[in-house]
């Protein structure tokens, strides 16, 4: 990953990240299996930039022999708490601490954008076995819903046009063209308490860099706005998962 202060900021909020971040729908792994042309069960999989293990847990539940790779010590410690039986190594996508041609599948869930393509592309190809699969995916809020579009606009104003609220289609525009990716997009929803929704926002790297006072001010305003939209206190979040798969 790009080992910057922003990338490492997640270590400050590892427990909150684990508790409040959305996971991924089963359809993502269904599509990975379809595009890989093989089941994940029995496959040797490395989950790169595993964070607190959201995707790692899903891969393990599918029967994959999964290894987690995570650069942040606090995030890695949280993963060990959540998934004590999963092998874990400290490392990042730019210099994988893995043997060459040793994995059937590499996954980067919400983490490829932190890497330097000049390093991470050759590293991924080095570690994959011939015919192995590289799968990248992201959750992005579905801004076709008016309330989400309005929230995204407020976030962009707060961060002065920063890229903390990306256009889901932009994920694909940033893929290395030489790897010939197949892409999919799929929508899903989760219903969470308003407090969980706000805590999820607070775990974004932009907020972690912003500081507590400014973050609390924004979230207090957001709480009041959303309480009018969701008077029962339950927020229905809608996400679009962007998935990109290629093969060595």
Give an account of the 3D structure.
- By secondary structure, the chain is an alpha/beta fold.
- Helix content is 41%, strand content 25%.
- Strands 3-2-1-4-5-7-6 form a seven-stranded mixed beta sheet.
- The protein is globular.
- The protein has a domain at 5-142 and 166-189 and 238-247: Vaccinia Virus protein VP39 (Rossmann fold, 3-Layer(aba) Sandwich), CATH 3.40.50.150.
- Helix 2 (14-20) crosses helix 9 and helix 9 (194-202) runs antiparallel to helix 11 (212-229).
- The protein is built from eleven helices and seven strands.
Keywords:
248 residues, alpha/beta, Rossmann fold, seven-stranded mixed beta sheet, 11 helices, 25% strand
Which class do the helix and strand fractions yield?
A: alpha/beta
Shape: globular
Largest beta sheet: what is the strand line-up? 3-2-1-4-5-7-6
CATH class of one domain: Alpha Beta
* First-residue to last-residue Cα separation: 20 Å
Helix share, percent: 40-55%
CATH topology of one domain: Rossmann fold
Helix and strand arrangement:
Layout: H1 5-8, H2 14-20, H3 26-36, E1 44-48, H4 54-61, E2 65-70, H5 73-82, E3 88-90, E4 103-109, H6 117-127, E5 128-141, H7 146-158, H8 170-173, E6 182-193, H9 194-202, H10 205-210, H11 212-229, E7 234-247
Parallel strand pairs: 1-2, 1-4, 2-3, 4-5
Antiparallel strand pairs: 5-7, 6-7
Helix pairs in contact: 2-9, 9-11
Can you give me a brief rundown of this structure?
This protein has 248 residues and is an alpha/beta fold. The chain contains eleven helices and seven strands.
């Amino acid at each position: 990953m790009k080992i910057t202060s922003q990338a490492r900021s997640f270590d400050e909020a590892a427990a909150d990240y684990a508790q409040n971040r959305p996971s991924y729908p089963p359809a993502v792994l269904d599509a990975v299996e379809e595009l890989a042309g093989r089941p994940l069960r029995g496959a040797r999989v490395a989950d790169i930039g595993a964070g607190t293990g959201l995707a790692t847990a899903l891969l393990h539940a599918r029967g994959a022999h999964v290894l987690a790779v995570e650069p942040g010590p606090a995030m890695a410690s949280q993963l060990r708490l959540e998934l004590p039986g999963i092998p874990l190594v400290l490392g990042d996508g730019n210099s994988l601490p893995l043997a060459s041609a040793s994995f059937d599948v590499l996954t980067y869930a919400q983490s490829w954008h932190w890497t330097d393509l000049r390093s991470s592309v050759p590293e991924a190809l080095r570690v994959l076995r011939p015919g192995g699969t590289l799968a990248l995916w992201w959750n992005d809020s579905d801004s076709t819903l008016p309330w989400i579009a309005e929230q995204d606009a407020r976030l962009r104003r707060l961060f002065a046009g920063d890229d903390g609220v990306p256009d889901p289609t932009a994920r694909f525009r940033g893929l290395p063209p030489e790897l010939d990716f197949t892409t999919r997009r799929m929508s899903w929803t989760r219903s969470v308490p308003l407090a969980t929704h706000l805590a999820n926002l607070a775990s974004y790297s932009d907020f972690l860099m912003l500081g507590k006072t400014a973050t609390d001010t924004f979230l207090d305003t957001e709480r009041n706005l959303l309480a009018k939209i969701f008077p029962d206190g339950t927020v229905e979040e809608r996400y679009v998962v962007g998935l990109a798969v290629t093969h060595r």
